[in-house]
Sequence to fold (259 residues):
Amino acid sequence: MKLFRIFILICFSFLAGCSDLEDPSVQEPTDEQLILLRNVLSGPLDTPDGKLKSESFYYGPETLQYRTDFYYDTQGRELLRVTIPDQDTAGVYLNEYLADGKLDQTVVYIPGPEGFVFVHYFKRFYENNDQTINVMQGRDGNYSQYAHYKFDQHGRKISYRRGTETLFDLHEYYYETGQSTQIMEEHYRQSGMTEPFYRYRYDYDGRNFLIAKSLQLLGPEFRPAFEYGYDENGNLIEEITNYLYLGTVPTERKTFEYY
Fold:
């Protein structure tokens, strides 16, 4: 029952605004996005075995900053994400899907004076036989570029750009062969750069699980900028971010739990 505690609190926040129906000053919410969220919260929220349950982010790397909880629809698709710092809900992210099962848009809510407030959408546009995905952020017909994904003819991700075409962070991915599914290198650069700022080498273990993204920084050897750990089922359970300018010093950590 602890899994649904946050949603019970959310439901109470909605019900509080409708508890006195005889009071003419209290209005039933008419915002369609809020009605959508209320309907989802009152419907089935699945917790399928093996699916991601929560992601916790630590700085230091031991001080918990926030936790994100995940809930799913009856088809096993991610339906709802709830971000919780210090036991208070900071944001709710509701996914909507197209008829073919692809993610259509994510509706973002934050706490307001009474219940939750709709903020904006992350709307996805699929082009070139799904080899290009544009993510736009906005509402009420006003949208701006947020992210851009590119995939090759084999469905492999080859780039991710956060931002606009002129002001961005760009990640490009390279594979060992034309048929390989394992990323071997990731190049990162920002707008205005002609050469990558970082070139990450991907390191795998004997199970072909990614265990590190390594950099050649301030010396000839590669050291892990990011490290990854897995459980006996092959689920990612930990991600560590290291600061490499003074040795290899952990600064951030994420942990992952599963249903």
Confidence is low (pLDDT under 50) at residues 1-29.
